[in-house]
Amino acid sequence: MHRFTLAIAAACALSACAPMDTKDKGVAKCDTSKLDWAKGQPATEDNARRLVRESGLGLWRIIGPENVERADYRPDRLTIYTDKDNVIQSLDCH
Question: Tell me, what's the pLDDT at 19?
Answer without folding.
Answer: 43
